[in-house]
Specification:
about 20% strand; alpha+beta; Butyryl-CoA Dehydrogenase, subunit A, domain 3; elongated; two-stranded antiparallel sheet; 9 strands; Butyryl-CoA Dehydrogenase, subunit A, domain 2; 2 domains
């Protein structure tokens, strides 16, 4: 997050390698994880659909074909789809249960079209028409497990994005002078920066809390939603303040700050905005 580097770390390590290591068969792990460790294999997951709001409730269908599965549906905004050796695709079986399936994005029955994200990252639009899929054991539980860790991974990246944007702002405002003094000495600038610092630390704290509970195999649904809420709402305030405190140079594409704003917005809206997280938390409280 701090470098806003367009490398496939999140899709490969979090979306692909983690669920393979946890739920994959011995043959599946042997086929892909050594290549991930050596840096030769890129993986990903297709968690977004145009007609389904919740990745745990996919509209994509999976039908059995002997020992394999055939998948039909559409996935959008798939990270690293043009590089991935395999993409984990959530789909619903005829029995109504969702599951995860390993799909070769260059295989028969798969069409990949390039998309460009808000942060200018290349993504893939996957059209599946009888695409060959290999089931990952675990079913709905594996899918829910993946979605929670994918969400916390986004929150962790947002920590880096906001931390670096805030540090850039501190450096700029202490060096930029107006009326014979650094603008960082003005009370209004200090207050705005202090609020951004509090928001950044709130993102960090809630992310660590959710990550710790997941690492300890404790229930973390509420903590993940809280972390994503802060990573969405608070991060927007941080990068917005950073843009304002930089003035005109903040939106100059020759200056790196604009990339942090775009990355923050992309992360904010991926796997549920702050509003969706509040709705989820409210529904849990109402039970």
């Amino acid at each position: 997050g701090r470098a806003v580097a367009p490398v496939p770390a999140w899709p490969t390590l979090v979306l692909g390698a983690l669920p393979l290591a946890r739920f994959g068969t011995r043959a599946q792990r042997a086929a892909f994880l050594p290549g991930v460790a050596s840096g030769e294999v890129v993986l990903g997951a297709a968690l977004v659909e145009p007609d389904a709001d919740d990745p745990r409730e996919p509209a994509t269908a999976a039908r059995r074909d002997g020992a394999r599965w055939r998948l039909d549906g559409t996935k959008t905004c798939v990270p690293a789809a043009h590089l991935a050796a395999r993409v984990l695709v959530p789909a619903r079986t005829a029995a109504g249960a969702p599951g995860l399936f390993l799909v070769d994005p260059r295989g028969a029955g798969v069409r990949v079209e390039r998309q460009t994200a808000t942060n200018r990252e290349p993504l893939g639009h996957l059209a599946l028409a009888g695409a060959d899929g290999e089931e990952l054991p675990g079913g709905a539980a594996a899918l829910a497990w993946l979605v929670e860790r994918a969400t916390v991974g986004l929150c962790a990246m947002q920590v880096g994005v906001t931390d670096r944007a805030l540090r850039m702002t501190a450096e700029y405002t202490t060096g930029r002078e107006q009326f014979g003094r650094p603008i960082a000495s003005f009370q209004a600038v200090q207050q705005r920066a202090a609020d951004a610092y509090i928001d950044t630390e709130a993102i960090r704290l809630t992310t660590w809390q959710a990550a710790w509970r997941l690492a300890a195999d404790r229930p973390a649904t509420t903590e993940v939603a809280i972390a994503k809420f802060w990573a969405s709402e608070a991060a927007h305030r941080v990068v917005y303040a950073a843009q304002h405190l930089h003035g005109g140079i903040g939106v100059d594409v020759d200056y790196p700050l604009h990339r942090y704003y775009l990355w923050s917005k992309q992360i904010e809206l991926t796997l549920g905005s702050g509003t969706r997280q509040l709705a989820r938390l409210g529904a849990d409280l109402a039970r």
